[in-house]
Structures are given as structure tokens and as C-alpha cells.
Amino acid sequence: MGFTAENPGVLTTIQDEGRYGYEQFGMSPAGPMDQNAFRTANLLVGNPMGESALEATVLGPTLRFDADNVVAVTGADMGPALNGQPCPMYQAVAVKAGDQLKLGAAKTGCRAYIAFAGGLDVPQVMGSRATALQNQVGGYQGRKLAKGDRIGFRAPNPRLPLPRTAPVPAPAGKEAVIRVILGPQDDMFTKEGIDTFLSQPYTVSKDFDRMGCRLEGAVIAHKQDGNIISDGMATGAIQVPTSGQPIIMLAERQTVGGYTKIATVISADLPLVGQRKTGDVIRFQAVSVEEAHRLWRESAQALEALKARLDQPQSPPAPVPAQAVGTAYRVTVNGRSYQVQVVRHTG
Question: Which of 118, 151, 207, 265 has the fewest CB atoms lying closer than 10 Å?
Fold first, then answer.
């Protein structure tokens, strides 16, 4: 038993860390678009960082629970409400059978994550529970959630000690600087083309999904054209076809591609791309491989520090010391006046 999707939202899928080792067969890795928010949600409910959870896009789902458990919502602010009352984000919350969790339209960001203690009871496909929509495998029947879908909890833990909280990240705003490593085909662009890429703003178009993010802005000039012999594709690769408009390849990218790749988004900044939405602005900044490694380590260390803090045993509340509390009275007996104090002990 777990929950029923009373309203599935626009695009809600089950994701875990992703499906790796099958790209030679054309299978995309899938996984969350914002790894940081996804992993934080899992840590809050006591799961391993890569456990299965829900990813909601733009407009979140409404879930009705039929079993007790602990949940956490992170990522985009979709105004989550539990039984009609505001539900705090970046905080583990106990839910009971019959409770309703409702997420609305994203106020900030694009994608929210809902984690459940013990993960979701869907089968592993090629070692992963992640939904790969392009390949129609994994998750729940290889598709997004639909109204009436019932998903079970694999190992619910309604007795998880609370409170468990994490810092709420500041909203990224409408414009973000995304750091990149130039290459592998940056030599196929003119110097002016590279300068344009690194100096001009690019707007997220309506053509943005889990596969990729097409941008609109100044044309990036090639020396000849944007075609190459198809080669391997990495998550975050930025293709620039002959049109000169960049495309960032994301979680469900194809495994090979035949357009020139001017740069690759560093791992630490992929979550920023995952939280962009149509109309947002991106500016690119080149960094070294060493700087990309340092930023990735910082991101990983922050999550490990959060895990260590949450894993610490909860200290019982300090006992309240006993106190004597008295009330004074004046009484008269046989014509003589006496003061009497009644004392009780608390604690």
C-alpha cells in the first residue's frame, strides 16, 4: 500500500539515480533533472540518496495516501499542501492513511521532488527504477503518472524520528550563469562564435523537456557547418547545429549525436539547468576541468554533511528540573491570624 494519484500533474515520473551501462544499446540513463533536490529529499526521509522518488514538472500531482509513512518535498516551490494546510518544504513530514498531499503550479523553479521513506514499489528494469519516457521503460509501466495510478511503498517507515530538516536553497531567479567546459568540437567554431557563446544571453524556448533544452539567442558561428560524424553524447553536452542555436542535452538525451558540441555543462550546474523553465535566461561561463572537479566535490561534500547530521541519534529532550511553586493564604483561627503557604512540586 502507498498512494493513489488523484491528479497526476503535468508530467510526474518515478526516478532514481538513473540507468547506466546500456548506452551502447541506445538506452538513455534517465534519472532526476535536479540531482541535488532529489538526493536531499531522499536523505530527509532516511533513504539512500539514489532511492526511487517522484519528479513533478511545472504543475505537481495530488496524492491520496492509503498507508502511514514519512515524506519530504524539495526542489521547485509548488506550494505543497497537506490536507489543505501548507506543508513545509525541505522537511520530513509524517502522513497518515487518508491524508492528501497536493502540489500546485511552480512559483519558483520547474521541478519538485517527493520522496517517501523506504522508496516506491516498482520493478527494477536493467538495475534501475527510473522512468525513461523516450524508451518507455522503468518507473510505472514506462510512462508518466496517470489519474488513478496506485503506487506502493516498498519499505515504509512511519516511525522515523522527526524533525529532519535541510536548508532551503535561495531561488535561482529568472537568469542563471551556467559554467561549462569548452569542447570537444569547439575548434569547429570561429573565434567570434566562441565569444558570442560566452558573452550573449540565451533564452529557454518552449522546446524544453527531459531530453534536452533548446535555447534561443545570438547565432553561434561555425567555421563551416554544424555537422559531424555521430559520436558519443554526455549529459550536459551543448550541441550547436548549423542554425547556430544551442541545445543542452539532459537526463533522457540520445546516446549519440551528429551535431558539433561547443561545450559541456559541469555536473555541479546541471541542477540549475533542470530548474530552468520557458522564458528564463542562461549565460555561459567557461571554467577549467580542475575547477569543475572542485565544484563537484563541494556539492558532494555538502550532501554528505547533511547525511551525517541527519544520521546523528536524536537527543531526548532535557528533563525539566523540579520546582517548588507556592501560594500564600492568610487564615484566622480562634482570633489569631496565621499565614499558610501551599507548596506543590512540578517536573
Answer: 207
Three-class SS of residue 297?
helix
Segment 50-92, tens digit of pLDDT? 999 999 999 999 999 999 999 999 999 999 999 999 999 999 9
Residue entry with cell 537526463: 251
SS3 content of the chain, % helix, strand, coil (to 5): 15, 40, 45
Contact 201, 282 (CB under 8 A): yes
Which of helix, strand or coil describes residue 59?
strand
Q: How far apart are CA 41 and CA 114, in angstroms?
A: 7
Cell of 105: 503550479
Give φ, ψ of 151 to 5 degrees.
Answer: -120, 130
- Asked if residue 213 lies in contact with residue 204, where contact means CB atoms within 8 angstroms, the answer is yes
Cα–Cα distance for residue pair 271/33, rounded to 1 Å: 6
Cell matching residue 82: 497537506
Q: Is the pLDDT of residue 134 over 60?
A: yes
Residue entry with cell 533542470: 274
Question: DSSP string covering 281-301, please?
Answer: EEEEEE--HHHHHHHHHHHHH
**Cβ(252)–Cβ(282) under 8 Å?**
no
